Every structure is written in C-alpha cells, then in structure tokens.
Amino acid sequence: MLTRSPFRAFLAAALLATAGAADLALAHGDVTPQPIDVTGLAPLKEGEWLTQNPYSGDPKAIEIGASGYNQNCARCHGLQVVSGGLAPDLRYLEKGQVGDEWFIERIRHGAHKSDGSTVMPPFEGVFTQEAMWAIRSYIESMHSDE
Ligand code: HEC
C-alpha cells in the first residue's frame, strides 16, 4: 500500500490540474469552435465576402448548417434555433438579403457592448465563408413570423 500511495497522489494531482484547466477555459467563455465540413457545397472565393446567401434553400447546406449551428451557436441562441433568452431568437431574423447582410456582419465580427466587452465572439478566421452561409441556410429554414 505504502509504495502505491505516492503514485496515487500524483494521479490525483494530475486529475485536479486537468479539471482546473477545464474550469478556467469555461470561466473565460472560450469554448473551442467545432470544425464544419463543407464538402458538397460550391466553393466561394476566399476574401470576397458575399452579402447574399448563395445556398439559400439548398438541402445540403441546410444539413451542414444544422450541425454547425447546433455545435457552435446553440449554447447561446438555443437548440433548433429556439432561444432560451440568452441571445436573440434567430428564427425571427428577416428572410432574404436584408437578413443575410445582418447575419454575415454579425457572424464575422461578433457583437460587443458599448464598453467593448464581447457578448458574441467573432467567427471570421474560424469558419470558412461556405460554413457561415450553410448556417444561415439552416437558420432561414427555421424562420418564423410569429
Ligand atoms: C457567447 C454567446 C453567443 C454565441 C456562441 C453566438 N452568439 Fe450570436 N449573439 C449573441 C448575443 C448576445 C447577440 C446579441 C448582440 C446584440 O445585443 O447586438 C447575438 C446576435 C446575433 C445575431 C444578430 C441577431 C439580431 O437579431 O440582431 C446573429 C445573426 C447571430 N448572433 C448569429 C450567431 C451565429 C450564427 C452563431 C454561431 C456561429 C452565434 N451567433 C454564436 C451571443 C452569441
């Protein structure tokens, strides 16, 4: 027993350190973005930002966007785009180009309070433009007027 205890103590310390690191990451709100595989979507020109969704209504884009949304946006905007109140309910985002423009601006740059603090992280440089418009396609497919 005695010979095993130092190893146990080491194990416990290692476990604690890991748990501590995870807590810290959560406390800072830095949840690692989940990669979005856009295979099957027509490629877009890098660095040329569109203001209109090129995949609107495309079933493949909606499928890719659903998974991308639920892994990266749902923790604030709610599962299936039904907001729990933390962040705006994106079902009410206007359809078509007006909504597209607002969407791409927000997802690229995020949102900040007047004091400069971040309420939504920017996703430019994190997701490809293809992935962003796939998410938009999914959100638009869940649109509600009520
Ligand atoms: C950490 C929480 C958080 C995450 C994660 C997040 N958002 Fe947001 N989002 C917000 C908040 C808060 C606002 C409201 C900002 C404001 O007051 O202008 C917002 C606003 C928006 C808006 C504008 C809505 C409107 O009605 O003006 C869009 C579009 C949007 N987010 C899309 C997304 C997408 C897409 C993702 C995932 C890639 C995402 N957000 C991830 C918190 C978040």
Defining key terms:
146 residues; mainly alpha; 2 domains; 47% helix; binds heme C
Describe this structure as you would to a colleague:
The structure is a single chain. Helices cover 47% and strands 3% of the residues. The protein is mostly helical. The chain has 2 domains: 1-30; 38-141, Cytochrome c-like domain (Cytochrome Bc1 Complex, Chain D, domain 2, Orthogonal Bundle). A two-stranded antiparallel ribbon has the order 1-2. The protein is globular and about 40 Å long. It starts with a helix and ends in a 5-residue tail after the last helix. Residues 72-73, 75-77, 87-88, 90, 93, 103, 106-107, 111, 119-120, 123, 135 line the site of heme C.
Task: Summarize, please.
The protein is mainly alpha-helical and 146 residues long. It contains five helices and two strands, in the order ααααββα. The structure holds heme C.
